[in-house]
Amino acid sequence: MPQPFIMDHPLIQHKISLVRDKNTGSKEFRELISEITMLMCYEATRDLPLKEVEIETPVAVAKSKILSGRKLAIVPILRAGLGMVEGIVNLIPAVKVGHIGLYRDPETHTPVEYYCKLPADIEERDIIVLDPMLATGGSAIDAISQIKGKGGKSIKFMCIIAAPEGLDALTKAHPDVPVYCASLDSHLNEHKYIVPGLGDAGDRIFGTK
Ligand code: PRP
Ligand code: URA
Predict the structure, then answer these.
(1) Is 24 a known active-site residue?
(2) Does the CB atom of residue 201 touch ligand 2 within 6 A?
(3) Distance CA 192, CA 49 (A)
(4) Mean per-residue pLDDT over the chain, rounded
């Protein structure tokens, strides 16, 4: 079994318990998804390169560090990935945001493509693909294939809850893409939902059920 980066910080684990709870309403659910993503972003960007600069403080000149100008992009998979955008944009305001529209066919559980708009210079950017749920892996695999088809090279995938089946499929299809998740759950049920999971992420974010 391929190993994802599991971000099991106590704050993340606490918030995951709250989003799993079926009694958590849409407003709190959205806030929690955003907060979990912000905490995960902090870990997933640990390898960003820095450069040294001189800054004049009110007291003296300090040698200090800033991000070295590597360009970043995030690509949420619609719809549920939209819930993860704010948490990253708040931390990295200069990030560019692409969008990929996919939904799972309810019968076949395979992804149906309906939208793709990426930053024009996607091939130069470090890209983080966002989707709270990695179930069969079909959506993540398709989204990453589309990004690679448009020139994307440096890609990470960030989800909140992953199933072993999806992790296995994604790692086989895109072995170059590191996977970051907050929980690796037990398995998929007969409807390809993650067990125990949190239900339908898109419906819970947007209140459509
Ligand atoms: C959910 C989820 C993922 C996908 C995961 O989206 O947000 O995109 O399912 O399943 P997979 O790993 O088996 O492909 P859904 O298709 O329900 O669309 P929605 O976000 O528009 O509700
Ligand atoms: N999509 C979801 O939103 N939840 C699951 O458990 C599986 C796919």
Answers:
(1) no
(2) yes
(3) 39
(4) 95
